Structure formats: structure tokens, C-alpha cells
Amino acid sequence: MAVLLFFAGDGFTAPLLRQEIVRVAIIKGGDGVRIDGDGLLATDEKGEPLRLTLPTQVKRVGGNLSVGGQTVSRLTVASPATIQVNGKRYRGTIEVEPSDKGVLVVNELPLEDYLVGLINCEISSQWPIESVKAQAVVARTYAVYQMRARAGAPYHLESSVLDQVYDGCEIEDSRAARGVRETAGEILTYGGQPIQAFYHSNCGGRTEVAENVWGVRLPYLRSVDCAYCATNPSIRWELAIPLKKLEVLLKGAGIQVSGLREIRDGKRNESGRLIDLTLVSSRGGVTISAVNFRKIVGYTAIKSTNFLVRLATDSVHFSGTGYGHGVGLCQWGAKQRASDGFSYREILAYYYSGALLGQLPGEQGVDAR
Prior knowledge:
Number of helices: 8
Shape: globular
Oligomer: single chain
Structural class: alpha+beta
Strand order of the largest sheet: 6-5-10-13-14-3-15
Radius of gyration: 23 Å
């Protein structure tokens, strides 16, 4: 069922996206990509059909692509079923073009199909259905916001944690489809516009405000208590990193810490997360924000900015709570709230204070509470 999204001023009065088509970058870089599938139609940049022997390898050659012995500047592949890209299946169409770092592969498909493929990448569809529906709404809202913000760009979203994790239709299932279907077209709005619906895995007991992470205040992203995520078996984490390895990572980010010998945690904000750290080396002390430190070391290594630092002989030990930036919906908290009987509307109202749940097409937003 086609859904029209309408936004103008304080109400839904002018069409935003009539076809709800999203463009997702699934590969950025690498010299080539392998394409396969049944009933594929391949065309070049002029829309002329290409005769290919499948599977086929697409390689960047200079500023063009080499496809089955033919040279094109862009390849578009469509199928009535699915298309395999490096062994993963995708719906919609696939576009391949050369880029500065290799090839850029973009999957273009209907927004609702994208969401069904996304659910099991971000959470488990086997979680209580109200939490699945909450995830569908926030993922749709996040996508719609990015579709507007990047309207003229080669793609709207990346398929990694930089935006939303998406692996095509490999792990679609009926419960993911149900969560998307039962919230079809619903997005969160504030002042008549789609919100930046940030979310994360586990807040560790209290969510974060946007300005502490990105320096921008968003009124619907306030810090709230969240005891619900305590059921997450990995709410607490620990990591040990050799000082030499940490020094290499920091130098790679342009921070000169030759002879790194100590790290001290600094001030904390109102949510309990670290604001900054001091790096002590033979050159003296350097202060770095905790958000930047986490980015440099790795988001999957330093899982949140809510951690303590302990120095050993030749390594640094980190012990922390939570996973992610902590802003917006806490996925594990949403799971437990759904288990406790809260509806997806109540879950969304808790984590996005003051946001409205839009009823599409064309209706005014209604209070998510």
C-alpha cells in the first residue's frame, strides 16, 4: 500500500515523498563487487541493456566500471525477485558506480521493504511485538529525516552503525514484517517535522541528551531514567588495552601522546557519563572529550562514555555500563517495557518527550502519549 508523507509548517499539508523510495549505500570502497541472481536486468548509464553472464564481477577501472568485458560509467541491476551482492540478497534495484575509494554500491528500494530487512539487524524480531513496532517507527522516522536532509546526495543512508544497520533481506521474517505493517507510515514529529529519532542499544540506567554528544539541543531528546535495560545480560562491560596500542590509535587520530603513561577520567555530566579524559605522556597532559576518545578507540571497544579508568603496569583497564551514545530510545529498555505491558505508543512517548506520532496520510499528528 502506497503511503504519502505530508509535511508543511505545523501540519501534514504538502507531499514530501510520493513514492517512499530510499537509497542505502551498502558498499563504499573495494576494487569490485560480485553480482548474481535470477531474472536480472542490467543497464548502463544510458539505460541500454547489457548482456551478462552470471555471476558477474564488476570492477573499477580508472573512472569507469568493467562489467563482463564491457566498459560503463554506471551499472543498474533490477530483478522481480532479489539481487545478490557479494552473496547477500537485496530487494529493489542495485546501482554500482566508481568512487574515489573504489566502487559505490547503492540499494534503492521502497522504504517499508527496507524497514523489514532492518529490524533483525537492529534488534530481534522475537522480542515483544510492541518493542518491534517501536523500533519500526523510530527507524522509519530516522530514515525519513535523512531522506529529506540528503535529498540531493548519491544516497540517503549508510548500512552501518553510522546510520542504521541493514543487510538486505537475508534475515527478514514474519514478525519483522508485522511490526512494520502494523505501524505502516507512522513517524514521530515535532513542530510538524520528522524528528531526529536517535536510538541506541542500552543506556545503562539513564539516557543522554543530544547536546552532550553532538553539541546540539533537541527538545524531544531529554535525559530520562531507564531502569528497564538492567535485564540486558551485557549491561556491564570491561576492556583492557596495552598503552602502546592506545598510543598508536591516538597518534593515528592526530593526537600526539609519545610515551603515553597514564589516562585519568575527568568531569562527568548530569547523566553520569564522562565529559573528558586527560592523557598523560612524556610531553605532558592532553585533555580529550570522552565522545571523541570513544570514536578513536572504537565504538564496539569503548561501548559507552559511562566508564571508569584503572591503570595497570603497561595497560589501561576500562569498566563501563551501557552500549551506545545513550540518546533517544534505549532498545533493551523498550524490550522490557513491552514485556511489562506498555504499548509502542507509550514506549515512544517515554523516550521522545513532546514528540507526536504522525498518522498518515494527511492527518494531523496525535500525541504519542
